[in-house]
Amino acid sequence: MKRRTPPVQTAGPGDTYSSPPRRQTLYWRLFANYFLLILIPVIAASVLAQVLVVRIIEKDAERFNSIMMSRFSEQTDTELQSLKTSMINILSTSRLRSVLLAPMSSSPDGQQLPELLHSLREQLQQLESDDLVDKAYYYFVHQDLMIDAETYTNKAYYFHSRYPSDLNRRPQLEAELSGKKMMDFLDSPASLTASMSYPFNTAAPEVYLLVEVKRDKLQEQIHVPESWVTGTAIVDHTGRVLSQTGLTGQDQDALQQRIRTEGIAPQFTISDKLGMSFMTSSFDESWHYISMIDLGTLMKPVHITRFISWLFLVFFLIVGALISYYLSRRLYQPIREIKEGLRSHHFSGKAIRHEGNEFDVIKRYSQFIMTENKELFQMVSGMLPIVQEQFFTKILLGQYRDALSIEYYAKEIEFSYSEAAARAVLCISFHMDPSIYESTSESTKTFLLTELKEKIHRLAPGMVWICQTRPDLLACIVQFDPQLEDHPVRMAEQIRRIFLEYSTYYRATIGIGRTVHAMEELHQSYEHALAMLKYRGLHSAVEICSSQPCRETQQWDPFLSVQEVQRIHNQYKTREYDKLLQSVNTLLEEGKRKDAAAVQMKYLLADVLNTWIRAVESERSELNVPYYACLFERLNRCMTWDELTHCFQDIHGFLFRKPVSSSRSQQFMEVVEYIHEHYDQELSIEYFAGLMNMSSGHFSRTFKDEIGEKYVEYIAKYRLMKAKQFLLETDLKIDEIAEKVGYWGRNSFIRAFRRYEGITPAKYRSSHQ
């Protein structure tokens, strides 16, 4: 008789299933019993031992730390307060007001300026003799002037020569220098710089005194020689480290984490490895001194106790986990084998349905694998068009010129093409309309360009490939039957109609490249299409350049002759500004009549604009290079005759502004009246010269011809006349009178008074009383 195998019984929903308990349930039940009986007493004993020992050690560490911090904080505060006092004294006794009012030229009227600058440099040299000071210099807000102990020069040259390796130093410094400052430290990663503004009690100072503090000297001040102190530091209220010594990168990370989570509070805190203490600075309440203590030395008993406690706890924890694991593993060996198989296999079919909670982990893991595969597939599919566009770009730029390499890379990115088809490249050069360019957001520009690409793709799905080789250039690769030779022209015409729908935003030129029959020859078609772009005319907003047009044969000189340049200079000197614009309009009309190419016309107009600028700058002392560069950029962006006409009308209106209709004598009388009313303020010659559209030298010479005295002499004499009235009619002090008549320093006022009157103000007052 054959032995019958008993059937396998499955538990129904209402049956009592007598199979062993699930592995997870059994494991946690066994481990919970072990935790209650053994681990809880071990944990309680460990915690009690640590609390008692840690409390004792913490009290001693806090007491030692308080004594140590009080000592080095007092020394540092004293040094910084001494530096602040020195900065205030220098600014109080400096002759900055004289420098700000002194003329910045080499004329006889500005002979006092070198003496003033020399005095300021001597004060800076005295300040740099302080052991804590590395470098000191003045930064003038409204003047292009920098002064340090060695030299004085303009700002651009100063930062380029003094800090050649730090190109961002000037923008960072100018961004920080605003408002009143009384020894505020600037946020600069390269150096620790203290700033103080002058005049002191004003929200819009004229000068900043900047002092770079020696980091090594400041580190010596806050250094504590005890071996159990790992490092010390000074931080501000934002948590920025101003100076530190002995702190590693890990220590600084711990410090920043402590400030972010708990803030800055004058309390002693202890972590696993470090003790940290904060103390408020008496020099600046927003500063805090920080010390970090190696608790491995001070708290060695704590470490030993903690190590033994953790050792016992880990030992009993491992023993309990192993016992619980062993007992549960015996019952759940089949499920474990299934889970291990799922980790190393990918299932593409349906998930198997199992009854019972013991299979929940397996089911969730299977669903997770399928979800991961789906997301990965979607991500790769989304990246494929971007990779293909990069592939097209490299082919057009000539990086892939081998048929085998192109075929290999095409298979890698799942791109298919017909080897027997013909192809041509259409280059589309475009730019936004200048009238709406500035008001259009970047998101709108991106959306418009994406919409254009989609419409071009829909013209011939699968037969047109688009890539952007430059920000202002689209390249369309058109694939077609070799028998349809005019297909690229028809496609260009369809693209032209699409761009005409967006003529409110875009101006475009479509260059058609020659037809090629191999993928590795596409770069030749691309180069030919680029060459076609230069034959664009100026009559249409969107133009197609398919071959060398007739306008190429036109004899057109793109440069002005010597006689024409001289005629423009003569018209400018005789102030015949209308004829200058009329001659440009004549050139534009001639260009329209001859159908000149855009590139030829722009070369000629650029030469005209350059001649205009040279004529205007012949009467000025400085060349406004950034603005003139913008004028040439605007000229290059023009793509129609109307844009060129409006462009030169605007440029002409700016460069050749007509003077005010009032006579010259009346204008200078208004300047004199303004001087009489505002003699106590800064009266810059550049201000009045700019109002009259003159250079400073021309204004000074014309002022003397109209008024009878030089501009500087007239102001000085009028101020001294007012000063003599104050001396005889009031009891004001010399310093107060100097400020009332526009002098920013007592010494400069006395020097000017003695120069014109022969005696000092005090002697003048005493002799007339």
Automatic annotation (TrEMBL):
Superkingdom of source: Bacteria
Keyword Cell membrane: no
Segments forming domain HTH araC/xylS-type: 669-767
Gene Ontology MF: a single term: sequence-specific DNA binding
Transmembrane region(s): 31-54, 307-327
SMART domains listed in its UniProt record: HTH_ARAC (SM00342)
InterPro entries: CdaR_GGDEF (IPR041522), Homeodomain-like_sf (IPR009057), HTH_AraC (IPR018060), HTH_AraC-typ_CS (IPR018062), Tscrpt_reg_AraC-type_HTH (IPR020449)
Protein name stated in the entry: AraC family transcriptional regulator
The species this protein was found in: Paenibacillus glucanolyticus
Upper taxonomic lineage: Bacteria, Bacillati, Bacillota, Bacilli, Bacillales
